[in-house]
């Protein structure tokens, strides 16, 4: 069964809107330490804030904040498995200045504390 409402919403995005959102996505995921606001992004890319939020969610399936939180944590999980960097260093690399907030976000997304995740998933 096809969700017609989703299909109709997809058709409402213009090609330039989609390209802008893809550019914004690339910027957000390329430099995780940078945390621009919706307002800053909308001014920089000349796109209405509501259009930015709605189109991003339509393309990537989640609001920007939720998407970026999960993206950051999944990137941190890779670093925990593949590097010897401290949890604080990894937290900083993925955009968290506060290790406690990082640990809370990590548990929210992956349901396990970062130190425990590392113990269970360390690469030799």
From TrEMBL:
One of the record's GO molecular function terms: sequence-specific DNA binding
Key words, A-Z: DNA-binding, Transcription, Transcription regulation
Domain HTH araC/xylS-type: 22-120
UniProt KW Lipid metabolism keyword: no
InterPro entries: Homeodomain-like_sf, HTH_AraC, HTH_AraC-typ_CS, PchR_regulatory_protein, Tscrpt_reg_AraC-type_HTH
UniProt name for this protein: AraC family transcriptional regulator
